[in-house]
Design brief:
There is one protein chain. By secondary structure, this protein is α/β, with parallel strands linked by helices. About 40% of the residues lie in helices and about 20% in strands. The chain is built from ten helices and 14 strands. It has a seven-stranded parallel beta sheet, with helices on both faces. Strands 12-9-14 form a three-stranded mixed beta sheet. Strands 7-10 form a two-stranded parallel ribbon. Helix 1 packs across helix 7 and helix 2 runs parallel beside helix 4. The protein binds uridine-5'-diphosphate.
């Protein structure tokens, strides 16, 4: 039997490439659609690369026509909270219009299974200790706002065109492929774990801790870190959920444990055995104090069970890839 094809937007990026590897190992053919603006050609190893931009509707249509995918996994997006506050228009335009094009193309091609990468940033800064899928969404940055808008588009298309979709609201993704074939690399880098590893490796002078005056035990922001391998396992379970006809559903993807920036710094030091050069700076605009999942819906409904999502394992896997193969910048 021919492998079922999955249209993977952003398959050259950090999470998308890990999803492609897992899809391939599970008998799917991942077709990466990517404009390589932030992704890496060498990350596309597990299926064909179709270069193109989601703003180019004709190009998107052509790829649907060529491969007749059974589903879409939509990873491609601008994803930096800080940048989204600097240039909000770019985030609203590229994230929302790109997704709208892809959603319309998918429906028009008769592909009615759609897996979407959303974010806990859609919840905003809440007083609650933990967030569930039912927590009201009030994003405080343009990144979260743009993702929330796409969730709305999916709901409307689902009502009108029977587009079944799984929305995953990610907490903070870290780690790398356990076999170190692919990993996390952004240019420029803004995410905490790779920044720490680059600072340790001497690839950047020091990392700045953004704010120590938050209302948390040590004053730094708290996040719920989930291993990229566990995260993409949830995606394949979500895909199978859709292919089994179980309908649209929203899932948080986090572990329920929160760690402060200082705790991540300590874990980095312990795992690598090296000090992390860092200084203290002001808060970054758009940062929430605390983002921790309080949901077990993915476990109960999808049978998801995170296996590598301890801080130590995530940092160890990321470090192995960072200090080993990496990508050519
Ligand atoms: N952070 C930091 N210094 C940096 C980058 C990030 O202190 O150079 C903090 C940031 O304020 C947040 C946490 O690390 O509290 C995670 O940030 P990241 O950008 O990795 O992910 P986000 O939570 O923004 O999606």
């Amino acid at each position: 039997m021919k492998d079922q094809t999955v249209f993977v937007s952003g398959g050259a990026g950090y999470i998308g490439s890990h999803a492609c590897k897992l899809l391939r190992s599970q008998g799917f053919l991942p077709v990466t659609f990517d404009n390589l603006s932030t992704g890496w050609r060498e990350a596309v190893k597990y299926g064909p690369l179709e270069e193109g931009d989601l703003m180019d509707r004709a190009r998107v249509d052509a790829v649907f026509k060529e491969y007749a995918p059974v589903a879409v996994m939509h990873f491609a997006a601008l994803s930096q909270v800080g940048e989204s506050m600097e240039v909000p228009g770019k985030y609203w335009r590229e994230n929302v219009l790109g997704a709208l094009n892809l959603i319309e193309a998918s429906v028009d091609a008769g592909c009615r299974n759609f897996v979407f990468s959303s974010t806990c940033a859609t919840y905003g800064d809440k007083d609650e200790e933990t967030l569930t899928e039912d927590t009201p969404q009030q994003p405080i940055n343009a990144y979260g706002g743009s993702k929330l808008a796409i969730e709305g588009i999916l709901r409307d298309f689902s009502a009108r065109y029977a587009l079944d979709h799984v929305i995953f609201r990610y907490f903070n993704v870290a780690g790398a492929d356990p076999e170190a074939e692919i990993g996390e690399f952004h240019q420029p880098e803004t995410h905490l774990v790779p920044l720490m590893l680059e600072a340790i490796a001497g690839k950047r002078p020091a990392l700045t801790v953004f704010g120590t005056d938050y209302d948390t035990p040590d004053g730094t922001c708290i996040r719920d870190y989930v291993h990229v391998q566990d995260l993409v396992e949830a995606h394949v379970l979500g895909l199978k959920w859709l292919l089994d006809g179980k309908g649209s559903r929203v899932f948080n993807l986090g572990t329920g444990s929160g760690f402060s920036v200082k705790q991540v710094l300590d874990a980095c030091r312990q795992v690598t055995g090296k000090d992390v050069p860092h200084d203290i700076g002001p808060r970054r605009a758009g940062d929430c104090t605390r983002l921790v999942s309080g949901s077990v819906r993915a476990e109960t409904d999808l049978g998801w069970s995170p296996k590598r999502s301890t801080l130590d394992q995530m940092i160890a896997d990321a470090w192995r890839w960072h200090s080993g193969p990496g990508y050519r910048a």
